[in-house]
Design goal:
85% of the residues lie in helices and 0% in strands. The chain has 142 residues and is mostly helical.
Amino acid sequence: MGRSELRTRVDNEFKNRLRVAARCRGISLTELVDEALKEYMLENDERALFGAHLERIEKRIAATEKRFETIEETLAQFIHLFLFYMPEASPEPAKRTLAKQSADRRFNGFKQLVVEHIDSANTYRKALKEARIAIKIKAAKR
């Protein structure tokens, strides 16, 4: 990498401190300033990367919070619907036994539907991810 001259003005006291520091390290004033500037830029680059990473995390947190809000609302709607259609439990033991058997059967059916839904969603996500990768590969070849 080529080098070019950079001129700047500093206080005399600061320049003397720089000269002493350079002499103590056994390097020239130019080398000292060069190292200091490189270190400063590296720290700023790291801060910028950290800031960008933090921003991505904040966006993910916000998206997750939104998903939780949606889940909470969906659950509330489901419970409301359940209570609307589900009669109150009878105090009679025989009717309660029948109600429990019916509830177990219906709940197992519900769980199976949820599993099927999740499986189909995962299949869709996998296909979408593969399509995105294929698009990136095609774009990289161009």
